[in-house]
Amino acid sequence: MSIDLTKKPFNLNADGVKWVEETLASMTEEEKLGQLFCLVAYSDDEGMLKYFARDLHAGGLMCRPMANNKELISIVNILQENSKIPMLIAANLEAGGDGLSAEGTRVGSQMQIAATGDVKYARALGEVIGAEAHALGGNWAFAPVIDIDGNFRNPITATRTYGSDPEMVKLCGVEYTKAVQAHGVAVSIKHFPGDGCDERDQHLVTSVNSLSCEDWDKTYGEVYKACIEAGALTVMVGHIMQPAYSKALNPDLRDEDIMPGALAPELLNGLLREKLGFNGMIVTDASSMNGFMIPMHRKKAVPLSIAAGCDMFLFTKNLEEDFGYMRDGIKEGIITRERLDEAVTRILAVKAAIGLSKKPVLDAERAAAVTGCEKHKAIAREVADKSITLEKNIQDVLPVTPEKYKRVLFHPIDPNGFSMFGNNENNKIFAEKLRQRGFSVDVYEPKPTFEGLAAGYAETVGKYDLMIYSASLATKSNQTTVRIEWAQPMGANVPMYINAVPSIFISLENPYHLLDVPRIKTYINTFGANEIVLDALIDKLTGKSEFKGKSPVDAFVGKWDTRI
Q1: At what angle do helices 337-353 and 14-26 cross, to 10 degrees?
Q2: Rounded distance, CA 428 to CA 421, Å?
Q3: Which pLDDT does position 421 carry in this prediction?
C-alpha cells in the first residue's frame, strides 16, 4: 500500500519524506521487528533500558509516572543515546504532566475539564501537557480519551472521559489534540471503536460497543472524525468489539468470529482507514489485557494484530516470547513484507512529524522551570474552582462553618489496594484541612459488635453537629465495579443519621455514588482530587466560593429515588 506522507496527519516536507524512506531502506528485518513494539518501564535501570533500545531496537517505550524529573530525564537520555532510531516516549497524559513525572502539574481529570462547561480548559490542559512533556523528553500522549461515558456501571471510563455528551467529548478532544501536537507531542485518540457502552472492563474481558452502525456514526463516529480532521497522529485501538460494524463490513462473520478492534481488519481498515479516512499510525491498547488474550491463542494474536492493520504493538506479556511470536509471524507470512514495511513507515512518519529525525537534547534546567510552574498551577486552580459540582442540595446546610457546625464526624470511604488514577491519602488530607479551617473532626471507625450491642442512635446524634461522608474510589484497571462496600457490621458507615444530623456526601472521584446514597440531601462531585481540589472544595463548603461546575453526566443515574 502506498502511503502519502505529505498528507494529513503527517504533513511531511521533502526532507521528512526522504528521512523516512532512507531510514526504512537502511533497516534490517530485525530492526523493523523491533520498531513494532512499544515497551514499558517502571524504573531507570540502565541495563534494561539499553537492552530495549540497543538490542531489541524498540520503536517506543511508555513511562509509568516517575518519582521526579531527574529519574525521567535519565531514562529518556539512556534510551535516545542507545537507539539507532529515536524512540517514541509515551505516557498516559490524560490529566496533566504528572502522568510522566510526579513534579508535573495535574490540571484535572477529563471529566473535571468538561464540568467547567468551557472547552477552553481542554485546550489549556493540552497546552500544559504538551509543554511539560516536551520539556521532559516525552513525545507521545496516550490521550485524549474520547470514549463516551454512556454506562454509569462501567468501572474504567468515568472521570477519564469528557462525559456522556458526544458533542462535548468531540469539542474537548479536538482542542486537546491541537494543543498537545502544537508542542511536538503526538496524541493517541482512544479507545477505538469506543469504550463506555459496556459495564465490563477490557482489562478483564473482551468488551462490547453495542451501538448500531447508525448510532455509532452519530456518536463515536462524529468524535473520531473530528479528531482525525484535527490532525491526530495516532489512534489507540481497544480490545472492544463493535458487532454491528463488523457484521456490516463482513457479513460472513459468525458471532464467535467477531474480534476486538485490535484484531479486526474490517474495523481497522474498513471503518477506521476507509470510512473515517485515518492515514496515521494505529497502536494496540496494552496487549497484556485479557480482552486481547481471550479471543485466540497468543502465538496467533501477536502477529495477527499487525497483519490485521495495527502498526504498533503495545507492551508484552512475556518479552522474549512475544518477540518470538512476532518474528515467527513474519517468517510464516502472517505479516507480509509489504505489511511490515507499511507499519514501520507509519511509525517512522510519526517520528518525523514530531521532529524525531534528530535525537532530542534535554535541558534539565528548562524542564524544572516548566514542570509544575506557577502558570500551570494557576490553570489547575482555575479548573478546580469551576468544575466542583453541587449535584443535590435539598437541605439548608450550606455554607458550613465552625460557628454553625463545630463538631464534625468524618466518614472516609477509601479504596482497597493500588489505584493508578486515585490517591489513597485524599481523605486523610481532607480531614486535616477541615481541622485547619477550625472544625473539630472525629474520624469514624467502625467497631465490630453484634446487633443490639451497638452505640445508641441518640448517643451518636448528640455528639455531632455535622456528618461528612467522603468517597475516594477512583476508576482503575482490573475491577468489575466502582460501588461502595460499606463497613461491617451491617453497613456501619452508611449515612443513616440524615434525618437527625445534617449530612453531606462528597465524591472525590467517581461521579455516580448517588446510586448507593440515594436519600442523601447534599451531594457534591469533584471528579478527581489533589490538594488544589481539596482547598477549592473547602472554600465552597464554607461559603468562600460558589459552586460553579455543571455535571457532564447524569449524577442521578436515571433513578427516581436519587432525587428525593
Answers
A1: 140
A2: 17
A3: 46
- ω into residue 191 within 30 of 0, thus cis? yes
Q: Render pLDDT for 212-221 as a digit per residue (tens, 0 to 9).
A: 999 999 999 9
* Residue 374 neighbours by CB distance under 10 Å: 8
DSSP string, 100-164: TBTTS-B---HHHHHHTT-THHHHHHHHHHHHHHHHHT--EE---B------TT-SSSGGGSS-S
Evaluate whether 178 touches 123 at the Cβ level (below 8 Å): yes
Query: For residues 528 and 516, what is the distance between their CA atoms, to the nearest angstrom?
Result: 19
Q: Cis peptide leading into 166, omega within 30 of 0? A: no
The residue whose grid cell reads 490517591 is 423
pLDDT at 24: 98
Cross-strand pairs, 240: 207
Cell of 523: 451531594
Taking the CA atoms of 551, 553, 559 and 560 in sequence, report the sign of the dihedral they define: positive
Q: Give the C-alpha separation, 61 to 79, whole Å.
A: 9
Task: List, in sequence order, every beta strand (DSSP E) within 298-368.
Answer: 313-314
Phi, psi of 225 (to 5 degrees): -60, -45
Domains of the chain: 14-367 (3.20.20.300), 388-563 (3.40.50.1700)
Task: Quote the CA–CA distance of 219 and 238 in Å, as a whole number.
Answer: 17
The cell 494505529 sits on which residue?
A: 282
pLDDT band for 33, please (50, 70, 90 cuts).
Answer: very high
Q: Which residues are part of the catalytic machinery?
A: 285
433: left (phi over 0), alpha (psi -120 to 50) or beta: alpha
Rounded to whole angstroms, how far apart are CA atoms 150 and 221? 15
Whether the pTM exceeds 0.85: the reply is yes
The grid coordinates listed for 53 are 533500545
User: Does residue 260 have a cis bond before it (omega within 30 degrees)?
Assistant: no
C-beta separation of 534 from 498 below 8 A: no
H or E element that contains 299: helix 298-308
Longest Cα separation, the chain: 82
Q: What is the pLDDT of residue 455?
A: 76
Give the separation between CA 145 and CA 537, rounded to whole angstroms: 26
| Cα separations in angstroms, 413 against 427, 456, 494 | 8, 22, 10
Residue 393 pairs in a beta bridge with 522
DSSP, collapsed to helix, strand or coil, labels residue 415 as coil
